[in-house]
Amino acid sequence: MLRHWLYVVPLPLLEAGLLLSWSSGFIGARFSIHYAPALLVVFWRFLVLALLLFPFVCRELVTTPFRVLVKHAAIGLLAMAGYMLGVTQGIAFGVPAGLAALCADLLPVGMALLAGVFLRERLAHQIWLGLIVGLAGVLWVTHDALGLGDAPLWAYSLPVAGMLSLAVATLWQKRARSTRSMGLLANLWLQCFVSCLVFAVIEGSQGSLAPVPSAGFVLSVLWTASLPTFGGYGLYWICLRRSSATRVATLLYLSPPITLLWAWAMFGEPLSWQMALGMALSSLGIWLVVRTESRQAARAA
C-alpha cells in the first residue's frame, strides 16, 4: 500500500509549512477583530471547515469505533477549544496580547515538564539547553511587546491553561495507540466539529451567532479556517506523527519572529536587528534539540 504523499514529503518542508500556517493565525486574529467579536470568528471558522470536510470523511466516521471517536474528540477539545479559549479569553479580560502569546510560546517547556512529572520521561541535558536557548530567543524578540496590563490576577492563568491544554493534547495524541486507526482528515473534522459546538455555546450565550454581513468578516473566517486551522493544525498532527513531540513543539519557537514578518508584509510594521538576533537565537535552540534527538535515534538504531 502506497503511503500518502504527505508522508513522503521531506519533513523540513512540512515543518516550514507548519510555521507559516501557524504564525498566520495571529495575523488573522488581528485582522478579524476589526470586523467581529473574536469568538464569533472562531466559531464560524470551525463551522465552515466542519461543513466542507464532512462529505469527505462521513464514510470513515461511520466505520470508526465509538471509543476512538470519543478519544479523538477529547484530544480536539484540548488542542483546539482549550488552547484558543485560554488565549483569547485571557486577552479579552485584559491580559496584553504580547504576554498571552509568550505564554503560548512556553509550549515546549510545558510539554517537557508534563512529560517529566506524569510520564516519568527524562530529557537529555542538551535538549533542555536547546529549550532554554530557544525560549531566550522568543523573549528577545517579544520583550518590547510585553506588559502586565490591568487584568485581574486570575486572568493571567488563562493563557497558561490554554498552553497546557495543547501540551496535554499533544502528548496524548502522540502516545494514543489508536491514533493511526483514524485518518488525518477525519481526525481534523472531528476536532473542528467538537470545537465548533463549544464556541457555539460560549458565543451564543453572549449574543447572536449570525455572521456579520461584511467582506472583512468573510475574509477573516476564510483566512483563519484555511491557513491556521486546516494548514496549521493539519501539519501539526502530521509532523507529530513523523517526529517527536519535543521537536514539533520546539519548532514553534520560530512562530513569533515569523509572525512579525507577516505583520511587516501585511501591515507595514517595522523590523529590527533585535528581531533578527532573536530569530537566530531561537534557531540555535531548535538546532540543539534536533541534533540531540537525531544522535539519540542513531544510537538507538
Structure description:
By secondary structure, this protein is an all-alpha fold. The chain has one domain (about 5-295). The chain has 12 helices and no strands. It has helices at about 10-30, 40-65, 65-90, 95-105, 105-120, 125-140, 155-175, 185-205, 215-240, 245-250, 255-265, 275-300. Helix 4 (about 95-105) packs parallel to helix 7 (about 155-175) and helix 5 runs antiparallel to helix 10. It is globular and about 55 Å long. It starts with 10 loop residues before the first helix and ends with a helix. About 45% of the residues are buried. The model has no long low-confidence stretch (mean pLDDT about 80).
Helix-strand layout with pairing:
Layout: H1 11-32, H2 38-63, H3 66-92, H4 97-104, H5 107-118, H6 125-142, H7 157-175, H8 184-204, H9 215-242, H10 245-251, H11 255-267, H12 273-300
Helix pairs in contact: 1-9, 1-11, 2-8, 2-9, 3-4, 3-7, 3-8, 4-7, 5-7, 5-10, 6-12, 10-12
What's the number of structural domains?
Answer: 1
Any idea what the shape is?
globular
Q: How much helicity do the residues have?
A: over 70%
Mean pLDDT: 82
- The sequence of SSEs as H and E is HHHHHHHHHHHH
Biggest sheet, in brief? none
Separate helix tally: 12
Beta-strand fraction estimate:
under 5%
Rounded to an integer in angstroms, the radius of gyration calculated over CA atoms is 19 Å
State the distance separating the first and last CA atoms.
25 Å
Task: Find the structural class using helix and strand composition.
Answer: mainly alpha
Low-pLDDT segments: none
Number of strands: 0
Pfam families: EamA
Membrane topology: Multi-pass membrane protein
Subcellular location: Cell membrane
Transmembrane segments: 7-29, 35-56, 68-85, 91-116, 123-141, 153-172, 184-202, 214-236, 248-265, 271-290
